[in-house]
Design a protein that fits this description.
Helices cover about 40% and strands about 20% of the residues. It is an alpha/beta fold.
Length: about 200
């Protein structure tokens, strides 16, 4: 069985990665959106095991020590990481897996799985990003300042990625990512081959 495709989606906090992923799932119900572990506190409405696995710094550090992560990073002062075994197992079973992670984590993933498809998402303008982060109403002023400063640094690293997508209209953005997945699956380098037929 062909191995699944590993995809990374990064972009500054507030760019709308989560919403785009939910939309993408409607177009590709068989896509696995990986659930990360984090030490940050849940936002209102977030569900443990669904949005994230929420855990303690002690438990997270124990897992780092046990080399349980495919990648991990400290983002906005909190730990975030992707479990190695779960992700690799899904790929082996032929499932396509999407990791919604930051740039530091994305670079670690590409080192370990070089044919990872790397997608970077940006907002249509800086003002749109500021508005989205502020409107969410879940961060303090200090957290907003920190996220914006980190967003600027993250956006500068878009050249590390294979695809750049501007998230202006949700449907279009999800459609573009869907198109990237379709195109990647047609690549000969990834093992796409003609069907077997009898030559006459
Ligand atoms: P948030 O706290 O807004 O959910 O996420 C903050 C940042 O952490 C986002 O840029 C998100 O992509 C990133 N992130 C979420 N999960 C992971 C992960 O497992 N690993 C890494 N490296 N970053 C993650």
């Amino acid at each position: 069985m062909a191995k699944g495709l590993l995809l990374v989606l990064s972009g500054p906090s507030g760019v709308g990665k989560g919403t785009v992923c939910q939309h993408l799932l409607k177009m590709r119900p068989d896509l696995v959106i990986s659930v990360s572990l984090t030490t940050r506190h849940p936002r209102p409405g977030e569900v443990d095991g669904c949005d994230y696995y929420f855990t303690t710094p002690e438990h997270f550090r124990k897992l780092i020590h046990e080399e349980a992560f495919l990648e991990w990073a400290k983002v906005h002062g909190e730990y975030y990481g992707t479990l190695k075994e779960t992700t690799l197992e899904q790929l082996e079973r032929g499932r396509d897996v999407l990791l919604e992670i930051d740039v530091q984590g994305a670079l670690q993933v590409r080192r370990q799985v070089p044919d990872t498809v790397m997608i970077f998402m940006v907002p249509p303008s800086w003002e749109a990003l500021v508005e989205r982060i502020c409107c969410r109403g879940t961060e303090s002023e200090e957290q907003i300042r920190r996220r914006l400063a980190e967003a600027e640094k993250e956006i500068a690293l878009y050249t590390e990625y294979d695809y750049l997508i501007v998230n202006d209209r949700l449907e279009e953005t999800a459609g573009l990512i869907n198109a990237v997945i379709t195109a990647e699956k047609c690549r000969v380098k990834r093992g796409a081959a003609p069907p077997c037929w009898e030559a006459n």
